[in-house]
Every structure is written in C-alpha cells, then in structure tokens.
Amino acid sequence: MANNIWYYIASGKNDAVHNMALDELLMEKVRAKEIPAAIRLYEWETPTLSIGYFQKMRKEIDIDRVKAYGYELVRRATGGRGVLHDKELTYSVVLPEDYPDMPESVTESYRILSHGLLEGFRNLGLDANFSIPRTNEEKKELTNIRSSVCFDTPSWYELVVEGRKIAGSAQTRQNGIIMQHGSILLDVDIDHLFDMFTYSNERFKSKMKEAFKEKAVAINEISSRHFTVEDLYPAFKNGFEKGLGISTEPYALTVEDEKRLEEIKEKYASDEWNYRR
Q1: How distant is the alpha carbon of residue 218 from its chain centre?
Q2: Per the residue annotation, which of 150, 218, 219, 232 is the catalytic one?
Q3: What Gene3D superfamilies does its record include (predicted)?
C-alpha cells in the first residue's frame, strides 16, 4: 500500500448518534477531497446496540429489553449483524475506493485493511491471525447466518485468536468511498447481548449463546494481562500505521465540520432511519 499521510482522530466517548454521524461526515470529507483518508478510534458513552443496515429491527430485536437495560439503539450504514458496543474500542477507516493498491473486491479489501487490526493485536502480545476458509464446507459455513448477533461466526479475513473471533468489522462503499468500522472487544456480557435479540424459543437461544462462547472471545478473556481501553488506543493507532504502511497526523473538527455533523445527526436520531426495516 502506498505510503501516505492519513488523518487520525481519537474522539473518545460519545453517544450513538454522534458516533455514526461522525463516520458519515468523514466519508463526505474524503469524497470532497478535503482530507485524503482517515483513521478514527472511539468509544460509546452509553452501551449501544448497533444493527446492520439490512437487519429488520422489529423482527430481530427485543426493543423493550434494550430500553429496559437503558441502552441506546442505532442502525449503522454498514451491513452485518447486531453488535453490543460497551467494553470495547471501536475503529473506523475511511478512504477512496481508488486508493493505490486497494482491491475492488470487498473481501480482499477487508484483508488489506485488517492488517491494521492484526498489527494492533500483536502490539498487545496476542497471536492473532486471519480467518481464511480453506474448504468448500468452511465457505458454506460462513454463508450460513444462523443468528442476528455479530461475532458468532468468523467471516473471511476477520481476526481470530486460538480459533475464536476477536474483532468484528463491517464495510460500506458509497459514491467512491470505502468506510469500514468495527469492534475491538475488551470484555463482553454475553447474557445482556443475547437478551436483546428475539429467538423462536429459549432452547434455540441457549444453543446460540453456547455457540457464541465457542467462536468469539474478548481480549481480557485470553490475555494474561488485564488491558484497559486506554491501552488500546496507541496499540491500534500504531497497528494501523504499520499494517497499512502509512503515517498519521491528528485532525480536529472545524467549525464547519461541527455544523455539518449536527445536520447528519438528525438522520441517525430519526425513527425513519432506525426503524426503516
């Protein structure tokens, strides 16, 4: 990948609407060539369930349970399944589709961009590797979506440690721009996560929960050291720089950025967007 200077934003904790709107704002700025590309690391003020662009909110989500927990609920611009954003660091990467050496294939671009995650986990001393299906049976398994919950099955080129998925990512491409974001889990409350989705019966829910435990893992579950989110910022900032062959400069939102951000927030705060499916 070409050696370029990207902008880096460590935006800390914000609410769900702000987080989704800022990712979209960065897409607009890269599309307008106001910035070349960006890496953003961020957190969530309140635990939030984000659902994929194509998920059916009322069919798949126990909305009353989400509200009872006091969690926020937002629809992402990216596909994929539901993610509980709580004890984690979230990343987003925004760049042009025609960026040098960037494959046209979504799957192959995952492989390129996920090198930043790979190096980040290695900076933490974890032996992370890519999940790559090698047989027709494994490929068929990755297309068999059995649950509305993300992290239950490793997808192509996602990161695994000891065979268990440790990072989940989703990507969208809009008008020449790639935006990929995802979760880097420190810890996860599996009971709360599965309580927020609807299942045909309790037996099936229990089966999916056990499968999740076998196929997904959080950093502090497998590390001999207890990491905090503050430990993750430098590990993954440096990881993306090394993995993508770039250097970064800090970026601060301008007055114009802040104004546009408020406009975009209206979209992610609206029922029209969040309950559209």
Answers
A1: 14
A2: 150
A3: Bira Bifunctional Protein, Domain 2 (3.30.930.10)
